[in-house]
Amino acid sequence: MTTLEHNALQYHAARDARPAGKIAIQVTKPVDSQDDLSLAYSPGVAVPCMEINRDPAKAYDYTAKGNLVGVITNGTAVLGLGDIGALAGKPVMEGKAVLFKKFAGIDAFDIEIDETDPKKLVEVIAALHPTFGGINLEDIKAPECFQVERSLRERLSIPVFHDDQHGTAIVVGAGFLNALRLTGRDISLAKIVCSGAGAAALACLDMLVDLGVPRKNITVCDSRGVLTTSRDLSEEKRAWAQDTQASTLGEVIGMADVFLGLSGPGLLSQDDVRKMAARPIVFALANPEPELRPERIREAAPDAIVATGRSDYPNQINNALCFPYLFRAALDVAATTINQAMKRACVVALAEMAATDAQFGTEYIVPSLLDKRLLTGVTPLIAAAAVESGVARQVWDQQVYRGRLEALAKTLI
Ligand SMILES: NC(=O)C1=CN([C@@H]2O[C@H](COP(=O)(O)OP(=O)(O)OC[C@H]3O[C@@H](n4cnc5c(N)ncnc54)[C@H](OP(=O)(O)O)[C@@H]3O)[C@@H](O)[C@H]2O)C=CC1
Ligand SMILES: CC(=O)C(=O)O
Ligand SMILES: [Mg+2]
């Protein structure tokens, strides 16, 4: 066992009278006397129950719903570990819940559902939804994840957001814009090769096209090789098929400006990196083990701009850089959904925060996950986009909202 493996198990184990795992529930009101009990529980609790029965919107006034997100998985694509099952995915989901709380003061329940049939999964999640102010779908594999998210978004009036798709796309978008800036590339000329054609990869590519990359400049590989027009592909993959005889990553990576890895460990070779254009942009984002380790990428191309999804290298491109703030904004303005305008606002806010920082450079293309400015810097811009695009049910005065976030930031431990 490596030191990291040993430490990771120690970290998650019970210690100092604290239970195993890394998150617990906190009581927020006094429950110390008979009088308190009469309010918190029977008979007093019946009063808010009946208020909500008369008007369901009152759940936001008298329960935790408005600050509570469900982090929901079925364990079919846990990080790059694959289909390890719902229960084995629990440490990741607890981890997402920790980040919601730590970075944005949002309470999150992790829910691991032992169901792989997408229709049944939708029914289970829809039946659970009254509990939550928003739903963060996590680590559900493609193509089922597309159907699950689409169905839930149609059915529910709370935000439903598949983090691996859209959270990843936002942070990749921000890192990509800044990597282009640093290397002086024109977005309309950037040639991109993507390893992976799953949830994260295809959403990232949609975002890159939204930002201005011509679709024809993008070549995609899945586990069977290049997506070509001669292959029998799913609807989602067909949109990225190229008319080419090439079939492997090694054949298409020549002179690519950007490698985007959202596939699995060790799928990029040093030879592949050597074939790329000068000053290549290499985002090897598979977790926990990237497509190629940064030190190996640099051996092959010392001037490369390199990013991974991990916390132990510079340039951590990870959806955790955005999902706490997207949900914070969505909950605060009671948004019915998280839409493209909110996602774009987040891309720009993250990119600008890094680009205007004194550290901006090849080893700092996006802010650190621990950057305390994120809550107050990024969230109001997402909230404003929600209001402007018409999905907010509550509008804040900007000064008042910033003050509220600053006060919240002081309470975060
Ligand atoms: N850094 C970050 O923030 C994030 C990173 N990720 C990482 O991205 C990866 C994919 O996650 P996700 O999209 O959710 O999972 P999915 O299961 O939806 O997609 C996995 C994709 O990887 C492809 N793949 C598997 N083996 C190969 C191979 N040998 N060559 C090329 N492609 C291959 C699969 O191909 P096929 O379609 O043929 O099965 C599939 O398209 C994971 O490693 C995950 O950790 C994900 C989200 C966020
Ligand atoms: C970061 C993340 O969500 C993943 O690797 O699946
Ligand atoms: Mg994930």
From TrEMBL:
<dbReference type="GO" id="GO:0016616">
    <property type="term" value="F:oxidoreductase activity, acting on the CH-OH group of donors, NAD or NADP as acceptor"/>
</dbReference>
<feature type="domain" description="Malic enzyme N-terminal">
    <location>
        <begin position="20"/>
        <end position="153"/>
    </location>
</feature>
<dbReference type="InterPro" id="IPR012301">
    <property type="entry name" value="Malic_N_dom"/>
</dbReference>
<comment type="similarity">
    <text>Belongs to the malic enzymes family.</text>
</comment>
<feature type="binding site">
    <location>
        <position position="164"/>
    </location>
    <ligand>
        <name>a divalent metal cation</name>
    </ligand>
</feature>
<keyword id="KW-0479">Metal-binding</keyword>
<dbReference type="GO" id="GO:0051287">
    <property type="term" value="F:NAD binding"/>
</dbReference>
<keyword id="KW-0560">Oxidoreductase</keyword>
<dbReference type="Pfam" id="PF00390">
    <property type="entry name" value="malic"/>
</dbReference>
<dbReference type="InterPro" id="IPR036291">
    <property type="entry name" value="NAD(P)-bd_dom_sf"/>
</dbReference>
<dbReference type="InterPro" id="IPR051674">
    <property type="entry name" value="Malate_Decarboxylase"/>
</dbReference>
<feature type="active site" description="Proton acceptor">
    <location>
        <position position="96"/>
    </location>
</feature>
<dbReference type="InterPro" id="IPR037062">
    <property type="entry name" value="Malic_N_dom_sf"/>
</dbReference>
<dbReference type="InterPro" id="IPR001891">
    <property type="entry name" value="Malic_OxRdtase"/>
</dbReference>
<dbReference type="Pfam" id="PF03949">
    <property type="entry name" value="Malic_M"/>
</dbReference>
<dbReference type="InterPro" id="IPR046346">
    <property type="entry name" value="Aminoacid_DH-like_N_sf"/>
</dbReference>
<feature type="binding site">
    <location>
        <position position="138"/>
    </location>
    <ligand>
        <name>a divalent metal cation</name>
    </ligand>
</feature>
<feature type="domain" description="Malic enzyme NAD-binding">
    <location>
        <begin position="165"/>
        <end position="387"/>
    </location>
</feature>
<dbReference type="InterPro" id="IPR012302">
    <property type="entry name" value="Malic_NAD-bd"/>
</dbReference>
<feature type="binding site">
    <location>
        <position position="318"/>
    </location>
    <ligand>
        <name>(S)-malate</name>
    </ligand>
</feature>
<dbReference type="GO" id="GO:0004470">
    <property type="term" value="F:malic enzyme activity"/>
</dbReference>
<feature type="binding site">
    <location>
        <position position="139"/>
    </location>
    <ligand>
        <name>a divalent metal cation</name>
    </ligand>
</feature>
<dbReference type="GO" id="GO:0046872">
    <property type="term" value="F:metal ion binding"/>
</dbReference>
<feature type="binding site">
    <location>
        <position position="287"/>
    </location>
    <ligand>
        <name>(S)-malate</name>
    </ligand>
</feature>
<dbReference type="InterPro" id="IPR045213">
    <property type="entry name" value="Malic_NAD-bd_bact_type"/>
</dbReference>
<feature type="active site" description="Proton donor">
    <location>
        <position position="41"/>
    </location>
</feature>
<protein>
    <submittedName>
        <fullName>Malic enzyme</fullName>
    </submittedName>
</protein>
